[in-house]
Amino acid sequence: MVEAGFDVRGLYVHEVSLMQDTVIIAVKQAREAGAQRIHRVMMRVGALSGAVPETLEFAFEIVAKGTMAEGALLEIEKVPVLCYCSACAEEFEPADLVCECTRCARPSVEIRRGRELQLTSLEVS
Question: Whole-model pTM?
């Protein structure tokens, strides 16, 4: 039963689905490399990706069970938002999720980093 974005165990359905896809991709890549086991999964997760890193970690433990990724360590690099101010011609990290230039206070519409949701590497044997 799914209600208001949660399943009956209280997990975010979005993160569970993301981690199911991540495990499928990781297992496929590991098999193609001739591996028998996945020891470590590395990801980059941007602040604007819509995914909660702590929930991804919990979901990973659940969806990896029974796969070659079971027991693997999930390492998540949290990627902060980086905006660009065309008036100042400079990149900046906003104080909050509003991309207002920290130098001239003009709003910016160019987001250069922070939307990432990437499986970056695997450690296998």
Answer: 0.83
